[in-house]
Design brief:
By secondary structure, this protein is mostly helical. It contains 6 helices and 2 strands. Strands 1-2 form a two-stranded antiparallel sheet. The chain is elongated, with a radius of gyration of 23 Å.
């Protein structure tokens, strides 16, 4: 199991902790503790943002607002990205891109530092986890088990 899967397993254990049975409940309880400790250790490796990153973000936001299309009240027009996030609808993309390149160059060290931190964290998430989970057998599961339930807790089944 990769480190990134620990987060999903922890969430899955919250979804199934209502199921009765002392062996199953004990395994869920113990595994929650193990996962909480490991997740905390993983998250502690995240670096704080570069001290100047907030300055970059503020300037980038101002740049977006300046180059965004405006509505009838002269307010920036927002649009939804495919991932569901909102963004400014940029009017003159060519001018925006030119100024953004200048801004990115001004904050080159900050952006490189942030990218390195993100890459390091992503690499840690892709590594195989070394935790040891409390395992259960198929006999310890409830009779009315579903395939989706099994998929969620597959790492704790022997």
């Amino acid at each position: 199991m990769k480190n990134k899967e620990l987060f999903d397993l922890r969430e899955a254990l919250n979804e199934v902790d209502y199921i009765r049975g002392k062996v199953f409940a004990y395994a869920v309880f113990k595994n929650k503790q193990v996962l909480d400790n490991e997740i905390e250790a993983i998250q502690s490796t995240k670096n704080d943002p570069h001290p100047d990153y907030l300055n970059f973000e503020n300037e980038r936001t101002l740049l977006c607002q300046t180059h965004s299309e405006k509505d009838e009240n002269d307010q920036p027009v927002l649009q939804y990205n495919p991932d569901g996030t909102q963004a400014f609808k940029i009017g003159n993309v060519e001018d925006f891109n030119k100024e953004y390149v200048e801004l990115a160059d001004k904050y080159k060290d900050v952006l490189e530092d942030m990218q390195k931190s993100k890459s390091d964290y992503d690499a840690l998430l892709e590594k195989e986890s070394t935790i040891t989970l409390t395992k259960i057998t198929i006999d310890d599961l409830p009779d009315d088990i579903s395939a989706s339930f099994l998929d969620k807790i597959k790492y704790m089944i022997d």
